[in-house]
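Q: Hi! New to this. If I give you a protein sequence and the SMILES for S-adenosylmethionine, can you show me the bound structure?
A: Yes, paste them in.
Q: Okay, here:
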Amino acid sequence: MASPDHTKGSALTGEGTAAAAAAGEGPGNGAQFDISVAHVARIYDYWLGGKDNYAVDRAAGDAALAAYPDLVSSVRSNRAFLARVVRYLVNEAGIRQFLDIGTGIPTASNTHEVAQDAAPDSRIVYVDNDQTVLAHARALLTSSPEGATDYIDSDLRETSTILARAADTLDFSRPVAIIMMAVLHLVPDADDPYAIVSTLVEAVPSGSYLALSHIASDIETQALTEARTRVGQFMPQQQTYRTHAEVAAFFDGMDLVDPGVERVQHWRPGSELDTKRPAALWGGVARKP
Ligand SMILES: C[S@@+](CC[C@H](N)C(=O)[O-])C[C@H]1O[C@@H](n2cnc3c(N)ncnc32)[C@H](O)[C@@H]1O
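A: Thanks. Here is the predicted structure of the protein with S-adenosylmethionine bound:
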């Protein structure tokens, strides 16, 4: 079984963020964490080889890995996809503003690092609703002097709050790339994820982009269904995996960038290594006409 590589660590180290919060570090100072149940951001951190996770997160992560060993490869492919997408948006689409929703615990190649490496004047607003991510948000606020970064602690379903607060940093009269990587599977159909995405896309002008990845329900279905069931025994937040057609529907009314909605490892791969990392996520990028 592939296991997470803990030699790399995340942007911040230590036994989880309770220690960081207790030490009075960062904007999460004083935040309370429930470490009796697993959290998706911390499980994902574990799979990425980070250190901001607890025993319950590792137990959930290991249970899922036993059912679908390519999970570690999947999350790394997803991060590599994010970096390629951001580089594409900056270098080929000329985007300088990003709204990254469902950010995750800071790790290597966060959106602002990739964007500002290519264009230092890039402006990035991050959104997440997890206390662990909040506690480490300072690692996301290390902007280049020419650009800007901000962090909004919000549920992505609160679109009006997000858009109002993001306007402090982003100019919504100019193109914005909305990034939603590996987060929409955490929004059940009952909460209408399509309406949430539409509301966000409606708020940005023509020439803006939507980029997202989503765990597939039609790749490795049996193994992934079992992995989801196992993780579900450790955390209350349930997951909805979606088919290629269901993921493509998030881009309705927009112009998909080649090669369309693809497995993330096959979306404009930068190297043979990119294509060789198996991943059970669909990903795509589209321009608002
Ligand atoms: C699987 S991680 C993906 C992280 C990052 N986007 C990536 O692709 O590497 C999902 C992230 O979405 C966040 N998230 C889940 N549900 C959310 C919600 N309703 N509102 C805001 N963030 C949410 C989690 O806290 C977690 O940090």
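A: The two ends are 45 Å apart (CA to CA). Let me know if you'd like me to explain how to read the tokens.
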